Every structure is written in structure tokens, then in C-alpha cells.
Amino acid sequence: RRSGFAGRAERMFGLMDGFLKNDPWSLQKDVMHHVEYTVARSRFSFDDFEAYLALSHTIRDRLIERWHDTQVYFKRKDPKRLYFLSLEFLMGRSLSNSTVNLGIKDQCADALNQLGFEFEQLVEQEGDAALGNGGLARLSACQMDSLATLDFPAWGYGLRYQFGLFRQVILDGFQHEQPDYWLNFGNPWEIERIHVSYAVKFYGAVEEELLNGVKRKVWIPGETVEAVAYDNPIPGYGTRNTINLRLWAAKPSGEGDMESYNTGDYINAVVNRQRAETISSVLYPDDRSYQGKELRLKQQYFFVTASTQDIIRRYKDSHSNFDDFSNKVALQLNDTHPSLAIIEVMRILIDEENIEWNRAWSIVCDSFSFTTHTVSPEGLEKIPADLLGSLLPRHLEIIYEINFLFMEELKKKLGLNYSQLSQMSIVEEGAVKNIRMANLSIVGCHAVNGVSRVHLELLKKRVFKDFCELWPQKFQYKTNGATQRRWMVVSNPNLCGLISKWLGTEAWIRDVDLLIGLKEFASNTDLQHEWRMVKRVNKMRLAEYIEAISGVKVSVDAMFDVQIKRIHEYKRQLLNLFGIIHRYDCIKNMEKSGKTKVVPRVCIIGGKAAPGYEIAKKIIKLCHAVAETINNDPDVGDLLKLVFIPDYNVSVAELVIPGSDLSQHLSTAGHEASGTGSMKFLMNGCLLLATSDGSTIEIIEEIGNDNMFVFGAKVDEVPALREMKSSLKVPLQFARVVRMVRDGYFGHKDYFESLCKTVENGGDFYLLGNDFMSYLEAQAAADKTFVDQEKWTRMSILSSAGSSRFSSDRTIQEYAEKTWNIEPCKCPF
Ligand code: CGF
């Protein structure tokens, strides 16, 4: 009956855009409806926030309609689907992005204007969905946008943390972390699916059972909680396709309740039930290391089992056996965080579906693929076997069995080379026995991807050398990308208007390769003039923001020089600060006549430090201390300003990137797997000052060395430099700036001592001293170019023109063809 109805609906609505109309009048009517009946405020009196909620519900209705159409169509066509498993998604705000992708932003603005509201102001009412740390999580969000836009039949799965990434509050220059209460005022973008829930089991023991004469393992859990689905529709741009991001929240399970209530311990029973919710309560705020904590493991398994149960349930809805599973299901692991999914699917197939081991294993290997974001063997995730065995006893058994079979296979190939066998083993023996999640992922997946070309080279040489030699065909790379919808259309509408005008089409928003068409106009003085005007307006907006948050007034004639990203020693914010101190020192010691030649700079730094990362927190404090001195020095005035932007997140990036002239990407070569921030700046015509690292190497190839400022040691030079670093001569300029900090020029002498130590006496692991002179030269070249505004603008236009390779559309297309083997499935109605 349902398919009959779907068929009729398709015929009825085939010529129209669903039930809901998108003209300003219809939108306005719907907004008023939601003001009155959803937000429950009088239509004669509601404020910006209430208007935002009503508008969001109006958009959400349209998303739901498209979501239904898309899902019904996918179900009917039964294409191979991609399931993207990620413990982190940094979605940011949804309102602006949804209206852009639905193609109704102008209509919404009109509708609101007539009601006396400004669209842009309502956009500001929305908080960020910050369910992730940094690059990896934002990459997931960009890839979801591309999957929807390119019409791929995909679903994302993740965890609905009640508290996302902590809020960074700066008090007296020190970072303090506060909880992110992002759900406190409700979230109009999600749809709670109380009826879509799965039991999640923990602890307990494994027993053997005889069923029809066959022995099988049964896991008797010690604790059961419930995973409840929250769906977040992801609309594609220029298509009706709307895919789903399903996030799981933990709720107490109904099971076992009666018993505890009956024993009379009512209070404890209720409290224990509430404990279940802690599983999805908080995001781990470190983007590089996880120390085998039980809660983290619970989170991983919780989201993995709910997702795989859901995926298998959907598969079984239209298939009577598992013969076609890997032809219909591609499971993508975003880093090792979801890699227990390999074991969970194995467990379901052998224990619940009674499939024989070898067949189950080949189904698993054919379905799973894995992307690693790590550059060093030390950064790989390990889980203590004891912990895993107590929480997931059956899974540990399966891991041991997989490892045993893998070791047997390896012995046949490598002989009894025990050192190599132990390196490649999934189980790390030692005082504490660990499960190596990366090894598990490599063994259980048919493809392993790096996130840039040089990353794959590092995987081959350093991180997974033995595995790359064993299975060279498994290892590939897909250079990361960013979506131009959010990072250009949403965040820089004026630039987009200009680009469309000069290209004579908006088609580049879907077909990003068209951007290269800008190249032929790069020297056109009219375009250059308009290009500069757009930048100036964006800089004015940013300058207002800076003044509002810091009280510092900055001149838009100065070069806006930006470094925004997580604070890490390898990302070398400290190198930036040393460069700023050097610049300040030079200005202080300059004759008056020399000062007239200085290119004024506004240096902007933003980023969060992991709460337990002391050195990163000291870098933040140093930034504030240096800013305090510089910004209040009358000798310097507008020639140099330094601003720290607190609580850096996706929305802040959307404001800062379009208003930047220069952006810095300073990682010590060989430490950034890819880097995606640089791509967003590139799209927006900001010039890059960067090391040859990660995806920057490919950016250099694309736009040319002469359109950016490249400096520092290269990836292959770093290991040798590191060996020699204690004997390397440190440049005087470097020694001088470090001494200024050490001697207390910026106060807090004792506090900064350990920070100075990281770069002194041969301890300079990230080679700041080595790269310092080359960094200053690159900065000088940037100054010189900035004076020549024609040249600068030309380079800026060429940066945007050359950015198409760094769109996540390209990344997703490559994954679809080379890793997932999926095809578009475009909903026609
Ligand atoms: O993933 C990163 C980022 N920190 O999240 N790693 N992780 N995990 C890398 O360091 C970046 O280089 C990379 O661009 C990003 C996404 O692949």
C-alpha cells in the first residue's frame, strides 16, 4: 500500500516542489504559524530568538519533506548505500546553510523583512552545534554536505553529546573551560525518534549454548542501556536530495527495572537509570590522544552498536540473506574511533545471524573502509585489553580470534620474524596488554586512506610501513576538502556574488571546477577593484567584531594576518608569537623615518587548547601578555596590533576567514596530516603563508609557489635536522625574542620559563629556531607584496581560482569511485 501511495504522490507532486511553497508570502505564513503554535508566543509580540525558532521550524518542515521524498526514493531504488561513522561532527549553525542549500535564502529574508526582522540578525541567534574538536570533525560535516549535494545515498552516524566542545573563556589571559549547554534552548534542527531505539549491552559474561546441535556463544550482559535516534536532515545544494545524520543519545533501558523497584530501593534504581545518560553526555576535548578511558570506550561502542544494528535492520528490511551485504552497504570508519564496528558486525553475523566465520569475515572486509588522520605511530589509539574484556567480553574473544588467524596468515608470508609479527599484531603485548585499534582497522578493511598525498607517503615510511608492504593496494589517499557552500556561499555572500557575476553563472557552486574561469580576469583592473571592495567590507565587519570582543580598535587599512586553529606545539602558534615579538622589537628600535615604511598589521590568533595541555595553555597566555604590551605601546600605534579571538568555533571562522588578508599555517613539516583551514582561506582569496606540509604541498602545486609565501624545512629534511638540532646554531634574532620572554619583558617570568625551555638548549623538537629566519623572510615578502595592491589582489584572485581541487566535492567523488563504489541516486520529485 505504501509504495502505491508513494507512486501516486510522485505523480501528483512530480511537477511541484512538494506540499510547502517557498515564496515569501507562504514562508511568512508558516513563520507566523510556528510563532503562535510551536514557539507558543503571541503573533503580535515575539523577539529575535523566537523569530529565529519559528523560522527554523519553517525551514525544518521543508527539510523533512525533502528528507521523506529522498528516503522513500532510496528505499525503492535500493542502491548501494554509504554509512559514514564518525564520533565527531562539527556542524556549526544550520539556519543560513539550510536556506542556501534549499535555495530560499532571499525569500526568507523578504518574508522576515515584512515582519520587521532581519535575516542576518536571526542567524546570530543560533548557537553552534560543536560536536567535535577540530579538523577531523569539520571534515565530516563538509563531507556530509558534499554527499548530499552529489546525490549519493549516504547516511552519517554519530553521537549526540549533551555537551559539545567546551566554551573557552579567557580570564586575565588564561583559558578556562566551561560546559557548552547547546541544547538548553532546544534544537529545532533535529527530529527525535523515540521509536527508533536499540538496546546497548555492556559488561557481563559469555556463555556457550547448544542450539540445534550447534555450539554458539551467548553474551549475557551486566548492564543494558538504550540508544535513541535523533535525525538531522542534511540538504544538498541544487538538488532535492536530503540525507540524514543520525545521532544517538543514551537513555536508561526499561529492562531490569521492575526487579530493582520491587526490592524497594526506589531511589537508587532511579539514580542508576539516570547514570545511563552520562554515556552521551560529553565530548572528549582532546583531538590527538585518548588514554583508554572507560567512558570513552563506552561512547565508542554505544554509537557503533546502535549504528550497526540500525544499518543491518535496514538491510534486512529488503534482503532475505547476507549474500548482497557488501554490494549494498559501504561502512566508512572516520579514524579508529568507530573501529569496534568491525567486531560488532562480526559478532552480529556469527552469533546472531549464524553465519560461518570465514564468510562473515569476508563480508566484513568487503564492506569496511578506514581513513586515518594520524601522522605518528605514537598518536594511534590503543585500548587496554582488560578494560575492553570487562566492558565487552565477547568482542575481546572475537578480536583474539581475528588476530590469531591474521598471525597465522602472516607467519606463512613472513616466516617466524617475531619482531615484525609483534609490530603488526592487533594485540600489543607488554606490562599492559593493549588492543591496537589502527591495526584492527587495517586488517578488517579493504581500503585504508590517508588525507593528503604526503600523508600517504608518511604512512608508507613511518606509521604503517609493514602493512603498506604487505598490502600495498589497500593503501590510498584522498586529499581532504572543504565545502564551498558553507565556506564561500554562506560565509562570504558578497564574494560569491562577484564571482558569479564575472563567471556569468552560479553553476560553480555545484560544479566547482568552473572557478578556474576567474584566472583569465586576475589582472583585470575592474575585477581587482571590486574584489578589494568586497574584502574591505568583510574586514570592516571583522574589525567591528574585534572591537566588540576585545575593545581593541583596528584599522582596516592594515594587513589582517590570521592564525586560527587548535593550539598545538606542532602548529607553532609560538613561532607566530616570536615573529610578532620580533616585529614589535624592530618597530621599537626604528627611527621615525623607518616607521613610515612599516606595513601596518593586525595579527589575529584564535584557538582552543585541550584542557590538560599545559604548554598550549601557556601559549594562549603568552599571546595575551604580548598583546597587552603591544596594544598599549604609543610607539607602535596602528603599526601593529595583536588580538586573541576567544572561543574559536565554526561561526567565528565564518566571520574571520572572509575578512583575512593573510593566513598562517605553520606546522613543522611532516606533522599535519592534511590541514583543511588553509583550503577555506584559499577559497576566500586570502594569501597563505605556510610550510610545505600536508595538503599545502598540493596547494602549492595547484596555485604555484609565487602565489603564496612558503617557508621552512621540508618533510624529508626534518628528521635529519632533528638529529642535529643540539648542534644547530640558533639565529641571534631568535635567541633575542626568546630571551625577551624568558627575562619577563611581557611579565610572568616564572610562568613562561617552561615554555621557553621547549625551544632552548637543543630541546626545540618542532624546529622553531631552525625555521625562524626563513619565516621572517616569508613575512617580509608578504609585507612587500601587500604594498603592491595590484599584485596582492591578483594573487588573491588566483588563490580562489585555484581552489577547486580542495572542495570536499572532489574528495567525496574520489571516495565514491575508488573506495566505496557507490553511485548517485537522485530523487526526481
Ligand atoms: O584531522 C586532523 C585534525 N587535527 O583533526 N587529525 N586528526 N585527528 C589532522 O591533524 C589534520 O591535519 C587533518 O586535516 C584533519 C582531518 O583529516
UniProtKB/TrEMBL annotation:
GO annotation terms (biological process): glycogen catabolic process
Enzyme Commission number(s) of this protein: 2.4.1.1
EC class of the enzyme, as a word: transferase
Keyword annotations from UniProtKB, A to Z: Allosteric enzyme, Carbohydrate metabolism, Glycosyltransferase, Pyridoxal phosphate, Transferase
Reaction equation(s) it catalyzes: [(1->4)-alpha-D-glucosyl](n) + phosphate = [(1->4)-alpha-D-glucosyl](n-1) + alpha-D-glucose 1-phosphate
GO MF annotations, alphabetized: glycogen phosphorylase activity; pyridoxal phosphate binding
Cofactor list: pyridoxal 5'-phosphate
A Gene Ontology cellular-component term: cytoplasm
Purpose of the protein: Allosteric enzyme that catalyzes the rate-limiting step in glycogen catabolism, the phosphorolytic cleavage of glycogen to produce glucose-1-phosphate, and plays a central role in maintaining cellular and organismal glucose homeostasis.
Family in the record: Belongs to the glycogen phosphorylase family.
Protein's UniProt name: Alpha-1,4 glucan phosphorylase
Complete-protein stretch covered: 189 to 1017 of 1017
